[in-house]
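STRUCTURE:
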């Protein structure tokens, strides 16, 4: 297993620098948002403009402000987040943030599909991965828990979360 080191301070500094590049024409709600939320809102708007759903999911998963804008029923309990180039469970991301230990992270496999025009589906499952080439956790070798699916529907000029289905865990 490859151990990755994260320098949270360097990442936050980079994020703060990128936030300075956010558009000046923000709404009143955006002005009340944190710098990172303004950054993620701008990223989501760009992904919407470009019709790039995979690029849209990253800010949606990482920002309550983005979920509030584009999530019909999204709450603080969104199941996945993205760290670097990998999706992880939101619960493990919170543990990582609290303890600073990357061993807390539970990586997830994410599959995108378009079941019908205007609908995007994201299936996700936590697991153990064999490191591979490039970005991301690698190849899934074992599922380690229940996952779920997320469904988004094109609404106006972007997508809106319409379903968040969590697969039940196995009874022990």
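SEQUENCE:
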């Amino acid at each position: 297993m490859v151990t990755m080191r994260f320098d949270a301070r360097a990442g936050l500094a980079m994020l703060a620098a990128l936030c300075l590049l956010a558009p000046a024409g923000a709404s009143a709600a955006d002005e009340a948002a944190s710098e990172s939320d303004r950054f993620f809102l701008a990223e989501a708007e760009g992904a919407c403009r470009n019709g790039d759903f995979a690029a849209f999911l990253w800010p949606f998963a990482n920002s309550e402000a983005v979920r509030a804008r584009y999530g019909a029923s999204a709450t603080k309990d969104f199941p996945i987040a993205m760290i670097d180039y990998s999706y992880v469970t939101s619960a493990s991301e919170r543990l990582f943030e609290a303890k600073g230990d990357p061993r807390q992270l539970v990586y997830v496999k994410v599959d995108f599909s378009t079941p019908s025009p205007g609908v995007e589906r994201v299936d996700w499952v936590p697991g153990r991965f064999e490191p591979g080439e490039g970005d991301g956790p690698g190849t899934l070798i074992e599922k380690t828990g229940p996952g779920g699916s997320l469904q988004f529907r094109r609404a106006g000029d972007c997508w809106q979360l319409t379903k968040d289905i969590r697969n039940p865990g196995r009874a022990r």
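REMARK: The first helix runs from residue 8 to 19.
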